[in-house]
# Entry
Amino acid sequence: MSFPRNILPRMRWQTERLGVAGKTGVGLFVFSTVFFIAAVLPQQAESRALMMRAEAIEQRMKAEPVQENRKAPKIKGDRALQAFYAFFPKIDSSPFWIKELVQVAAQRGVEITGTEYRMVHEKDVKLVRYEMILPLRGKYADVRGFIADALRAVPAMALADVALKRQDGESELLDVNLKFNLYLSTGQ
# Structure
C-alpha cells in the first residue's frame, strides 16, 4: 500500500479550515487521549487489583467463625461496682490534679486569676465531689483548648458550669468562670 504524496498539503489545508477554536479542540482531544492512555488506564488496572484483594479479604472474613472471646468479659454484681469505684483517684490526690490543671493552663496560655475549692461529701456515697471554681483570662480558642485538655488530663473531672464575659466588643480576651467537679474515692 502506497502512501499518497499529497497528504501533507491536504492536512495543512484541513487544519487551516478549522480555525483557532478547531485547532484548540483537536489539541485538547489529542492531549486527552494521551493522558487517558498514560494515566487513567494504569490506574484502572491497579484499582481492579485492589478491588479483587478487598473481595478476597471480605470472603475470608465471612468464612472465619466469629470468636466471642474477643470481647472483654462482662463484670457483674459487686465486682462491677468495685471496678467502677477503682476508676476514681483517692481523696488525698487532689493536689496532684490541681497541679495538672495549672500545667494545662500554662501550656494553653490561659491565666488563672484565682481559685475557690470546696469538698462536698454526701452521706452513704463512696465518692466525694471536689468543686473547683477557676476564674480564667484568655482568648476564646485558648480557653476552649484548656477545657478540652483539662478534661483529657483529669479523667475523673466533669465541667459543671461555664460563664463567659468580654470587657468590650473589641477585646480578644475573655473573663471566664469555670466550675469543675473532681470526683474522688473515699476508699471505703
